[in-house]
Design brief:
Chains A, B, C, D, E, F, G, H: This is YtoQ family protein. Chains A, B, C, D, E, F, G, H: InterPro entries: YtoQ_family_protein. Chains A, B, C, D, E, F, G, H: Pfam families: Nuc_deoxyri_tr3 (PF11071). The structure is a homooctamer. Chain A has a domain of 100 residues: 3-Layer(aba) Sandwich (Rossmann fold). By secondary structure, chain A is α/β, with parallel strands linked by helices. Chain A has six helices and five strands, in the order E-H-E-H-H-E-H-E-H-E-H. In chain A, strands 2-1-3-4-5 form a five-stranded parallel beta sheet, with helices on both faces. Chains in contact: A-B, A-C, A-D, A-E, B-D, B-G, C-D, C-F, D-H, E-F, E-G, F-G, F-H, G-H. The interface between A and B is large, with 39 and 39 residues.
């Protein structure tokens, strides 16, 4: 079984397209909490309010790290998607974290980000543009069949 | 001796301010190649031209990775600076890479980036706004003196 | 599944409150032997009496270490509870051991211990006061739902 | 050369007695910042004031962790001293951290703490009561001579 | 259960002979994609054509590395077969990779390759000539019975 | 579940006494091949005769190492029994190997071997004389009950 | 300082060209014994003759492994050269060994070997054809200057 | 520079013969305390008398472990000598410890011990009978010259 962690962009349906496309394959997917509001506020919701936004964010980011670290450390493959919006530094951070652990990295992004992501892409075993390509990679890695 | 790697932004003088401010301290600094043009073109300059920009970038990013990895792996402390311009995904990638190796991370950025960098900051042992604060940290870590 | 080790205080019902509150969640809990007398005397009960109290304690502490080490090494998350009584150095030792292994740490203690536990808290991904908050964290990490 | 980290109690002269007694031996000592006030306030002094005491402490504890981690990770031997006062959970945390990294541990404490420290002592290669015994251990380990 | 990765030559039936011979043993086998054409072209088939043969090969080799690395890292035993044809540098690369990870290596080759493979054989726990000997080794390792 | 590897002496029934005594406990036992003749001759029986006794032994010892290494690496606890006969250097080698991997060691031997085994015992978490004590340890570690 | 291990082909002057070209750079080079006869016969010359060529080779290959392993493990960068002659499986083995340890790999070979070396090249951070390119890489990595 | 740890027998002059023979080579030797009485009594001499011989030995063995572990962990090569007398289980323990850490092992013993040491020899990169052969190995590893 392949354990795959899906990191990065949370505002499009790329995860669903990969998960749906992989039906029938021996793959277990994991991902961060993708509910933006919950992800931002989890820290203060559980551990108490913070007047300072920095610590508000800090508490939440650390709770999310419990899930993210386990997801990456348990994974065989880490897929990191960079979308068109936002800074997405957490996605690049996850990619670096996964690379240092020796995970197989697949980076997913549009052509316009090629230059800005060159260091991230250079650490990857595959750079794809569409979620369906990731599905094809998973199928090939599992049973050797090509599209 | 403290070995410190200075990752991230290459368009302001933050490295110089840290290195100059640390005169007399037992610190050895390392950093990526900060000549933007050399860093972009090193791959093709040494290993041969590529008509496709993706592979042009790819060859260069891999050569730079030889230096970056050694710099991070040898370091006790990795300082990562996020500036006001560009995507800076390589900086976040370095931070993730360093975090996974258990390095002590110091993140340096302006207040406006606090929310976008919350996951990176959450992995750090210090979050500073000015290079002089990094100097003060290095001095305190080495000899216990405060500003 | 999350594997969670519950270290520390053995004289209140905090473990039961976490385990009971986590019913229905995909969590496997582990903990030290919490029978104080058995924990103190296991070494000599099995391996033979010692006239010197130091070696009496030593034999027992080493048997308990077989269980503790496995519990911590197998865990994704290590929760360490500091109560109001006793030195509880073994709890702090477990926290340090878990931190060095890169485990996600949750520290549980009352407000009065904040200053004395600052180094331990600084290594944690969450600091909570009530066992129910730990349950909420586990639920959030598993399925993203907030209280 | 032996690299020795001296962790724990900061209110008596045990470190000086070890360092002075080791004159002429091939040992390099390291230790945390032992100026109590500086150690407590370093975070806010460098990185900015915090109205909440928890975050005041948190910022300081993390700066101190930069020094502590390096000291422990670089060491061959970690000596941890437990005195008669305070909770000293940071000392026990350091001991656990060092144990998990496979460092040779020497624990230094009076007889009255034997039972409370049994788990910590069980992870050690030596348990001593006086700093002079630590000096004798270092001398024996280096050149085989006994007192 | 023994997890066994079968690396190397893809043009004879040695894998089938080992897998068939091991029927009834508690062994799980894994191997690279052995369809030569698929293995060569997988990169461009999924990720897009490359005019330069070097990058054509490069993309494919990296996709295959996702499977190979997982296969070797998950294995208890790595069997590497060297046949009579081709350079087979990937087989020797896999052997080196497995050796550095501390895997138990079994090398399978004819007598004529003995001198050329001496460094690879020197890292192995067994050097065999016939696939049936590998089956006998697996049976002996599992239940102690000899042929 | 506890995974326990039983290393050492093969001429008495100590393994049976531990395995039988542990009926009902959640323990999985593993051990080397204990058929002395098979263990000595496995190498040449499978891989071909050797005129030189050194290489005869060498081939066998390496095949046995495939099983031994996996047994020790997979184990939570390694029990090493030293009997009254033979050099038993392989038992001491296994103990050292297990110690370096951080396994919990239980050493089992009669009083007469105490001085000769002091370095091995010093690396152990328990030193027992009778197999039944090992059973009691396993029971205590699993469910906290004492004899 | 960069530590560079030069593995592979021993029949051309590529090592000299790299070492000579790197005069003045802060690089320490290491390499295997490149005297072919000594390398083949070292085992029996020191440890005694073997009538069987396999064990003759085996003893030598293991002595050479003492040097090779240290060379690779100490290195920051491992350069592996594939020439036009011989099987060179030891070169590919070294490349795999270095890759698994996370070393920065530079592969050096002529165009004709591109397809056969695609898996090895895919693990490298640079693929060069001429020793002078390796010198240029070392210079760039050290001081950022391009040819 | 090669760092070499000389473990095992302390009653003959084999260490002197290796050290003397290696004059002029770039080797740093380390070894356990070879004063038998000091080694046996160091624990109680420094840390206080024990009426029970087991704990007398235990305290000493642990102090010696501080030196032994550092010696082995720092070494590139571990030479283990088995003499004609005593059980020498500590020597075999050191060999196992060094093997698990991936150190290059050289085993030194007379022909009569070949069968009893077959598992230890099987983990070694060289098996020699005379100290002078070890010197020849060190010289060959360092400069490629043969006797």
């Amino acid at each position: 079984m392949l354990k795959v962690y899906l990191s990065g962009e949370i505002h499009t349906d790329w995860r669903e397209r990969i998960v749906d496309g992989s039906k029938g394959l021996d793959v277990a997917f994991n991902s961060p909490v993708t509910d933006h509001a919950a992800s931002d506020d989890c820290g203060v919701a559980i551990l108490g309010a913070e007047p300072d936004k920095f610590w508000h964010d800090h508490k939440g980011a650390k709770l999310n790290a419990i899930r993210t670290r386990k997801g990456i450390e348990d994974a065989d493959i880490v897929v990191v998607r960079f979308g068109d919006q936002y800074k997405q530094w957490n996605a690049a951070f996850d990619a670096g974290y996964a690379a240092a652990l020796g995970k197989s990295l697949i980076i997913l992004h549009g052509k316009s980000h090629q230059h800005a992501l060159k260091e991230v892409d250079a650490a990857a075993l595959a750079v794809a543009e569409e979620p369906e390509q990731v599905v094809q990679i998973l199928r090939y890695v599992l049973d050797g069949s090509l599209p």
